[in-house]
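Problem 3 from the worked examples.
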Amino acid sequence: MDEAPILTSTPVSTSSTLLQNKFYDQFAAQSEQMDKLGAQLITLELAIPGLYATVLKLLQGDDATIAADNWFYFTFVCWFFALLLTLISLVPRIYDVDPTIIKNVAGSNAAKMSVEDFFFKSARYKRRLLIPSIHLFWAGIFGAAITIF
């Protein structure tokens, strides 16, 4: 009756460890993926206005002029702000991180953020800039299509 219960355990399997490591690698790489997306967006956001001018020239020949109406201004304002938001997302920010804290306890009011919070907040900040940038870019393409035809 005074015997202690026997507890048995098994070591974590190699596949479980590998999956867990891949999960944390993916979590840590989110901000880097946002940077890659931003770089691709800059390429598109600089190339599309050039293509727009080329298409305009091909469609209208030597008289390649277009009325500067509201849609024309709308197009370039959207493209300008899309490029601006993308560039802002790529500018490095300074975070106050305590590298000794891996994960904050829920509800704690620590003065510095944890390493996990750093990865999450930096990726979220970039995502909050890149998603509107993408919407503005497509709105500009829509405006460009209207001004050509």
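Problem 4, a separate protein:
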Amino acid sequence: MKKILTTTAFLLISIFALLSQTPPPPPDNPSDGGNGPVGGGAPIGCGMVLLIALAAGYGGKKLFDFNKKILKNCSL
């Protein structure tokens, strides 16, 4: 039952991700291939910055916790 619920939730959420891009504009002149940018204008720049920032924050927290654990176990 839990597996079915998880699969259903995944499929419902993935619908929004699959429909997130707009279709490319129609070409003005069919001989030159259109006027849209390469890749259809998919915005990936802000997502990359967010992903890198989250990874740096996660790595910093892991490093902080590791140092805290080392100092706790160290007896002077």
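Solution to problem 4. The radius of gyration is 23 Å. DSSP finds two helices and no strands in the chain.
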